[in-house]
Design goal:
The complex is a heterodimer. By secondary structure, chain A is mainly alpha-helical. Chain A has one domain. Chain A is about 50% helix and about 10% strand. A two-stranded antiparallel ribbon of chain A has the order 1-2. In chain A, about 35% of the residues are buried. Chain B has a domain of about 110 residues: DsrEFH-like (Hypothetical Protein Ychn, Chain: A, 3-Layer(aba) Sandwich). Chain B has six helices and seven strands; from the N terminus they run E-H-E-E-E-H-H-H-E-H-E-H-E. In chain B, helix 1 runs parallel beside helix 4. Chain B is globular, with a radius of gyration of 17 Å. The relative contact order of chain B is 0.23. The chains are: A mainly alpha, B alpha/beta.
Chain lengths: ~100, ~160
């Protein structure tokens, strides 16, 4: 666990860099987290994914599977990988301020 | 010092039962989700996983599967003779697919599409294609190419090979 000051706010992260308290999250913070993870600008399409991930986390205590994510957010798989290059579900969770998604799919 | 992370996996799917095909699909999808390069190479009966007409008819073997228990994973062992009854394999398969659906594990056709859309590559083994007299029309559109074993080793260069 470590804390960083971002936008004049003390934010705490776990060892893998996921925020430990999702209530500290704001869209402005997301933009900063995105930059730190190699995404310069967050578009509406990014936020479709981020908002669905947050909603799912708040309802179920964990992020969605990629299958559910692509079906429910309306962002198809190919685009998801383009929006969050590399490891999409993990990266989107980092930026959405939620814990690392559990589950194998 | 932490060991170097895995960057690329090539997974061989050689068996055509439900538990022969799914592990390879789950591992390939998981690899893409972690940002690794993923190749799937379907060979022998595993090839049924990417045959249009048959991929969603994959079943669990209820005969020759000594770990099989009924009515659930902690039930009693299924006697071989009962496992041989008509419809047993289809029944066991539908029970298992229900559980898998709860975990959001898709049917084979959708799973192969997901992996392909995620940038995973799907290959068929040439020896099997010839042996089974298959043509391109038999395969799902996600199948990228038919490979010889030599091609497979070549494109697996620098990565891990996993045989399932």
């Amino acid at each position: 666990m470590n804390t960083q000051t971002i936008l004049n706010q003390e934010i705490s992260f776990d060892d893998e860099g996921f925020m430990t308290d999702h209530t500290q999250w704001t869209p402005e913070l997301a933009a900063e987290l995105a930059k730190a993870n190699g995404i310069e600008t967050l578009t509406d399409r990014h936020f479709l994914v981020i908002d669905y991930m947050r909603q799912c986390f708040i309802e179920n205590g964990t992020g969605p599977t990629v299958r559910r994510l692509t079906k429910q957010s309306g962002v198809p798989m190919k685009e998801l990988y383009a929006l969050f290059p590399g490891a999409p579900a993990k990266k989107a969770a980092l930026i959405a301020g939620i814990k690392k998604p559990q589950g194998c799919i | 010092m932490n060991p170097e992370p895995i960057k690329k996996v090539s997974i061989v799917v050689s068996k055509g039962s439900l538990d022969g095909i799914y592990p390879g699909l789950i591992m390939a999808n998981g690899a893409r989700m972690e940002g690794m390069e993923a190749n799937l190479f379907f060979t022998f009966f595993g090839l049924y996983g990417i045959l249009k007409k048959y991929q969603d008819k994959i079943r669990i073997a209820t005969v020759g599967n000594p770990a099989m228990r009924v009515p659930d994973a902690k039930g009693f062992p299924l006697p071989t003779l009962l496992g041989a009854l008509p419809g047993m394999s289809a029944f066991a398969t539908s029970m298992m697919m229900k559980e898998m659906d709860k975990l959001d594990i898709p049917p084979v056709s959708e799973f192969v599409e997901m992996i392909s859309d995620a940038g995973g590559k799907i290959y068929a083994c040439k020896a099997t294609v010839d042996m089974f007299h298959l043509t391109d029309d038999d395969f799902v559109p996600q199948m990228d190419r038919v490979l010889t074993v030599g091609d497979f080793y070549e494109l697996s260069a620098g990565g891990e090979i996993i045989f399932t």
